[in-house]
Prior knowledge:
534 residues; alpha+beta; His-Me finger endonuclease fold; Conserved hypothetical protein from pyrococcus furiosus pfu- 392566-001, ParB domain; 3 domains; 6-stranded mixed beta sheet; 4-stranded antiparallel beta sheet; 19 helices; 13% strand; flat; binds zinc ion
Amino acid sequence: MGSLYLSRLSSEERNDLIKTLLKNQNYKCFICEEPIDLNIHSIDIDHVIPLKLGGKDDPSNFAITHYSCNRSKQDADLRIARILNKFNKITEKTLETKGQAPNLGDILKEYNGANYRLKFKIEGEVIKYSFSEIGDNKIYEARIYEDNLSGFKYFFGVFPIEYLYHDERINPRSIGKNIFKLIKEFFLKRPQLHISLGYIFSQSGSSEIKIFDGQHKAAAQILLNVRELPVRIFLNPNLDILLTANTNAGTTLRQIAFDKSVQRHLGSQLYIERVERYKKERGLPEDDYNFSEADLVKYFKGESKEMKKYILDSIRDWITHNPENKLKEFIDFGGRGKEKPLSYSTIEKTFYSFFIYRDTLHTPINYRLEEGENPRELEKQQILKLMNIIAEEIYIGKFDPDIGTYRIEHRIQKGENIPEDHLIAYRMSKEEIIYNWLKYIAQIIKNYFIMQGKPIDENKLFQYNFPEPLWDKIKIFIKNLKNLPIWVNKELSNTVFGGKQNYEYWQTIFETGKTPQGFQVLPKPINLMEMLQE
Length: 534
Ligand SMILES: [Zn+2]
């Protein structure tokens, strides 16, 4: 790749260089660390440290990779690319085994951590321990401190990862690609600022050290082959209080929620970049979009999962950040805001998860684009249109950001006068509620097409052009739904609307008119035919 040194080699010298490098690399690809066989594989010679970052253009800075690994690498620096690739591999593995991206526990397992309980003894304000199981018999001592207000006891120490475990209960989140930034930071030798938090129980004289906070930092360092980590360890904590404290630590939650829509945006950028790369590497002209999503996924084989995600990200991102999107200003991207009725995560779990087709399309990207019948274009445009209809019917000029969402039901009980329009918007936006009524919209659309005798694939609902009469029906449904008396019934504020219910709870209410406990809250079950009458 742009090497003067390589370009000057004769083909014999080049072959010798390849042989030497391969031998030094144990006949494995520098990035994926899987075997390379010159008879079978196409390969690349590349600079480990890119020239523009000061890498040398000589054999000391060359490495051999599979051709495809180098072309799909996720960082220009091959040393970083190798670590990111490793993380991707672990992710694929856990997606397969448990259907989820990895958490710290999976990373620990991969690096032979989480093997031993810490043995210790407590003498007054001092705790003593050693790491005998891994051959370190030194007796370490740490002072035990007491938190002034909570009375929680804790100490600090540096612990081999063999003694660290992940706490899934307090920290159930898995680790996504946002760890890449952190890996790079640490790789560039920037220090860890906040240390991980853990706890032990002292009753039996030995305990697993459970890490419940700082899993990204811990995982990033472990991936960089760090074998011991600093931890603040609570001694016999009340786990419920710890759980609450961790949940309330809004910063981390805010961070995660924020990351999500940002990640979508990044995914969308990556999609654009991949499309450009595909065209370039296949020698297609600038304006040729005669290939499909499936072609792209196939071409970037080594990372087909990522590629599929980038495709979805680009759709979500287009809708979310579209300048025409009127619902946007009612969406809280920060996670725990108190002003906006919808959270971004709710939007993902409802609109995007219901209405965006999740599989890749085999039709060319520009398929029927000029006729206005391109399936993905229709899908995006029509989801956006639905959002705008909902924004107009329920939110604009009705939901008042100054009143916000903070403890609304509580404020009603205290006698505060919340305007009805505001209350309707607030209640209809609760995730478990909107989840159910948006499903009815999908049903209305389906029924409409069936009545027209049009065969449809219901997974691709929004890829069919909705005629105006269908839009009218959707509007009428939303109007009628909004007019149900339940949304303004203030007596329900400490029962039905009092806490967070699950999806099924509201499904039952809509289907029977009663709560699962048999409490009548709607005059009668929802009847879709009636809900479509003006
Ligand atoms: Zn490889």
